[in-house]
Amino acid sequence: MPSESHGLGWSYSALFWDLNKKCLHRISIRLGEPDPTSILAAFPSKVLQADTPLSFEVSKISINRNGSALLLAGLEGLRVMYLYGRSSAEENTIICRTVSVGSEIFFNRNNFIRTLQISWHPYSDTHLGILSSDSVFRIFDLSVDIGQPEQEYYLQPVEPGNSSNAAAICPVDFSFGGDHLWDKFSVFILFSDGSSYIICPVVPFGSVYKWESVLEMYNDAQTFGLKSSNSKAVNNSNMAISWLEATFPELVRRAGDGAQSYAVKAQPFVLLDASVALQGPLRKVCHTVTEDSEIQKGICEGRAVGCLYNLVGKDSVLVTAWSGGQLQLDALADEIQPVWKMGNAPRLCVDSSDQIIGAAMICETAPSDRSVLKLDQPPHLTAWLGHPPPLLRLAIVDLALPDKCNSLIAMMTDPLVPERIFCVHAGGIDSIVLHFLPFTNQTSGKEEAMRTPSVLSVLSTCPGDSSSPSPLHGFLALSDSFGSSWIVGLTSSNDCIVLQMDTWNVLLTDAVEKVTETGTADELKETGTHTIISKDLLSGPKAVLLPPSAPNLRSVTADSIEGRSMLHQYFKLFHENYVEYAHKVHFELQHHAPHLKKIIDNQHSRLREMERKLLEVERKQEKIEDRIDRAVKVHSSLEERLQNLRSLPGSHKKPLSKAERDFKLELDNFNGLELDALHSSIEALNGRLKRHMHSPQQADSPNRQTVRKGNKRIQEDEISQLKSSLEKLSLLNSENSRKVKLVESVLRSKEISD
Fold first, then answer.
1. Which domain of life, per UniProt (predicted)?
2. How confident is the model over 81-126, as pLDDT tens digits?
3. By mean pLDDT, which of 59-63, 312-316, 515-519 is the weakest?
4. Cα 644 → chain centroid
5. Poorest-confidence range of 283-292, 303-312, 400-409, 464-473?
6. Are strands 284-285 and 391-398 parallel, antiparallel or unpaired?
């Protein structure tokens, strides 16, 4: 089961859930004492038992900010265990109070709604955020009501009936924002098609925030919003200022008396005539123009499965995980601003003193400007206009997960190095370090080109291709007071793994790469031909010009004094040129021999490496060919099944023409109305006939017998007429039924023939 921990300084309490015993184990861990690499754990562990048995299997646990409550979540239940209680008769066992959250909403058999993601709010110890399958984001206040939510946001990313993609309306994950301007009041919603949305502002009632951060947002709205020349920006900033002043009344009170404060509590407040808008989908931008969203979606495979918000310096980074094993890293290219949609009033729940205790609203997307977004636009042209912040693509990381691994990917940031993100999947743990942060580098004065992040494998749970992956059941990143970063993991065999991560050299990859690139360039320069042998030697010995001689010296012999003098002069010239050139060549070759040997050895090692890679490619080629053969067979089977389906009688049905539809409608009316009228007439006549035939005979006086006989003849005549009319109606009904059956048979035969 996933593990959580809470601690102070270098002492921590690691918690993990026991699936078999259905209890919680708490282990005290001490890191970095007495040696920086030392790890001490207490034995035996404390056992925390729920006061009421759990009827579901726990798949996730999460602890709140102050460590007083633990979330126990599963597919069929949601409980909160308070980590204080009474001692049990068993040794090292504590009975803890456990309550059920939202049982009437999420786990009702008549209305089964799945919980997609559950998370504690980062600025409250009692508020839970829950995203469910009915596209509703709810916030529960456990200190007030555990059954009903405090706030409900019904998400409508598209207008009803206008969506052609079902994945565009199915949320999968959410993430709370960080401590940066309006990010702290924002919730990022991820849908299965990869689109991201923002709802802002979302503030739990009673949550606590830093006074300086709230005052910074208040001053920003007054400086850049109210002084703008755009009326829309002025209106949006006025709404934001009114909301801030009502939610944090200290802004108005302490602005007058100049009192200092460190933290402020959010008061219950909701605009009465507007609902929070659903900002998005967030568009992708480059340094110059907008990127096509279809191209962006086509890069990653599968569907989106998770998102993570990470604040690194001045950059807000949004990481999206895909089921194909890719991570999409984007940075917000603009500040988040609150947006409301007027005319869509929320539903409020108030107490006896008219204090708001609950709110529900529909979050619809506002019509956004589809103009081309550029990063070099001045801030005053885009501030407080209500546009959702665009995304600047940093990188797409392919984790290259094995085929046997599932699509579950969990992400967590390093508590000491925010540039590092840990990714946990069925294949193990990977570390991703960001080396390019556009706005942080710009603020620090660094103008560097965009660099790809570095990806390192921290732990592998797939040691070989033949072995099946054994994923971790829990993962947590910790930091101690000595500046060390630790990773705690729980294996499938209930073994705890503790790894110490380097922190001082994580961001030195950039400098190392620059040195490596410089060294590589120098090596390539040295391996050039002109650096081994100089150009003068490659050009060969210089041409020797014979000295001019007199015509009478051409006929001298070599034995004569003149001949010897001429030969000595020629020998001296040749010696100065060719012998000295040979000495230079010998010296150059002898001097460069070690360097040449090094180059040759390097070439041989590269040759061996290429041969090894070629053998690996050939081995993989066989597997690829086998997969292609299987794919071809499957394709042939599917083609055969498709042909069989096409040969079925109803596969070539064509829609009826307008005349045929009108004729069928006329027949339906005739069958439904006229036949019913005929049946009702027949039933009425049968009733009248029965009444006449079975009427009681009374005793008549002798004076009225003659009249009776006359009336009897009249009644017999009427009965005969009724019988004849009844027979005619029966014949007409039979004829109409025969015609209707004939028409239906003709239509059926025509549809089969088509």
1. Eukaryota
2. 998 877 776 777 888 999 999 888 888 777 778 899 999 999 999 9
3. 515-519
4. 40
5. 283-292
6. parallel
Rounded distance, CA 167 to CA 195, Å? 10
pLDDT at 518: 45
Contact of 221 with 239, CB cutoff 8 Å: no
Whose structure tokens read 């003709």? Answer: 746
User: Phi and psi for 584 in degrees, rounded to 5?
Assistant: -65, -40
Q: Tokens 């090292």 identify what position?
A: 92
**Span between the terminal Cα atoms of the chain, in Å:** 60
The token pair that represents 205 in the structure block? 């009632």
Cα 519 to Cα 525: distance, rounded to the nearest angstrom: 10
**Beta carbons within 10 angstroms of residue 129's beta carbon:** 23
Give the 3-state secondary structure of 188-220.
EEEECCCCEEEECCCCCCCCEEEHHHHHHHHHH
Q: 61-75, 155-169, 245-259, 377-391: lowest mean pLDDT where?
A: 155-169
361 with 153: CB under 8 angstroms?
yes
DSSP conformation class of 471: -
**Encoding tokens for residue 66?**
């102050």
Where do we find the tokens 């390097």? 602
The tokens for 272 are: 């009465």
CB-based burial, 255-269: b 16+ in 10 Å, e otherwise: eeeeeeeeebebebb
Task: State mean pLDDT over 496-516.
Answer: 60
| Whether the bond into 201 is cis, omega within 30 of 0 | yes
Find out whether 150 and 205 touch, Cβ atoms under 8 Å: yes
Within 10 angstroms of residue 646's Cβ, the number of other Cβ atoms is: 9
Written as six digits, the tokens of 254 are 């302490």
Tallying the residues shown for the chain, one arrives at 754
Residues 311-324, mean pLDDT to the nearest whole number:
92
Report residue 396: phi and psi, to 5°. Answer: -125, 120
Residue 528 above 60 pLDDT? Answer: no
pLDDT for 564 equals 78
308 and 372 in contact (C-beta within 8 Å)?
Answer: no
Identify whether the C-beta of residue 302 lies closer than 8 Å to the C-beta of residue 322: yes
Cβ neighbours around 239 below 10 Å, total: 19
**CB neighbours of 300 closer than 8 A, spacing ≥ 6?**
194, 320, 322, 324, 326, 328, 396
Tell me the average pLDDT across 666-692: 71
pLDDT at 190 over 70: yes
Residue 373 contacts by C-beta under 8 Å, 6 or more apart in sequence? 283, 285, 289, 290, 333, 390
Nearest C-alpha neighbor of 396 from the set 304, 481, 474: 304
Separation of alpha carbons 359 and 361, rounded Å: 7
pTM for this predicted structure? 0.66
Q: How confident is the model at residue 670 (pLDDT cuts 50, 70, 90)?
A: low
Give which of 120, 154, 121, 160 is closest to 137, Cα–Cα.
Answer: 154
Q: How many Cβ atoms are within 10 Å of 398's Cβ, its own excluded?
A: 14
The pLDDT of residue 714:
64
SS (H, E, C) 474-501: EEEEEECCCCCEEEEEECCCCCEEEEEE
Mean residue pLDDT across the chain: 79
Bridge partners, residue 141, by sequence? 127
Query: Following DSSP, what letter does each residue of 150-198 receive, concatenated?
Result: SEEEEEESS-TT--S-GGGG-EEEEEE--SSGGGGG-EEEEETTS-EEE
Torsion of the alpha carbons at 601, 603, 606 and 610, rounded to the nearest 10: -130
The first and second tokens of residue 138, run together, are 């709810």
425 forms bridges with which residues in the sheet? 428
> Are the C-beta atoms of 341 and 364 separated by less than 8 Å?
yes
Token pair for residue 477?
């990143």
Q: What percent of the chain is predicted at pLDDT more than 70?
A: 76
CB 532 within 8 A of CB 600: no
